[in-house]
From TrEMBL:
Keyword Transferase (UniProt): yes
InterPro entries recorded: SAM-dependent_MTases_sf
Pfam families assigned to the protein according to its UniProt record, in alphabetical order: Methyltransf_23
A Gene Ontology biological process term: methylation
Keyword flag Hydrolase: no
Sample GO molecular function, one term: methyltransferase activity
Keyword set, alphabetical order: Methyltransferase, Transferase
Originating species: viral metagenome
The protein's name: Putative methyltransferase
Amino acid sequence: MRDRFEIWGTYTTGCGSARKVVEKSPRSDMIAAILGTHVVGTFNLKVTKKVANIGFATTKPRHGFWYHKGRIIPMGYYLGRLTHQYKESVMVWVLSWHPFVATKHNAKCASIEIVSRRPIPDCFKDGSLLRLEMFSPWDKPAIDAWWPKQPFKWFQSFPWGPQRADGTKVWNAMYKWADWSKSTVLDVGCNTGWYSFQAAKHGSAVYGYDSVPERVRAATTIGEHIENIDVDFGAEDPGGNFDVILYLSVHHQIDKTYLDLADTLTRYKKRCKTIFLELIVPPPHNSMSPGAVKDIVGGEILLEYEHAVRCHRVLWLVPGELK
């Protein structure tokens, strides 16, 4: 099965039967969180012979969203990316409730519903032809063939990979201190995106960035084909303000002495309401005492623990300056 399918059409605003998908979804809590506050619109397909040949199953017993090489993709929700002709794009959920789109033998005009956690750009609403890519989930053999070849996989543990890190422990310590269902989140030094995905699963609109391109590519692939979560990843800080900034076990990689820690925190405080900060304490080069680190950070300690791989770590809740 191909990694993604591509169709073309136009976008209109409005809400139809999208909430019916939630009732049928095995991850209904997450989808409900997305539908609760975000944009629902309609994607009107431009059905061509090429599109029809992808095979949209419509007739019993082949009810499904699309039909490809004998395989029925059942109705439900799918992760996708909606792209304007000028290359601006937005992550969306594709919601298939009605069992008709088109058939291999009878292509016709049809529409599907899409949901986005992020505002739909105005240029998408002018009737321009848009590309909608839908990402197909990978099965276990595909994951097992891909994941062992990836670099940096030791630090963040996924249920389908080796369990070596302590992400769940840290997430549980942070969870009750933010309203994730309504937050915008910046994940600084996101690595392969584990914390980004946790926040997104609980309703947040998340942007994760990492300066290492291989990590960004891995996180993007995990989001599109394994976790199936709409997180935006990139190699640069997007700028702007956020409700929450995650700065977890990153600072020692760019400032081993912690001499720039105070300035870094000051910059991030100006951009958010809350920072979750995790540090190796004392710093790797023992250039600063634990007490001195705590004096710089301030805030409230949520967790202290010995990391499964290396070093003693401390997690703080640090108030930002935004209201």
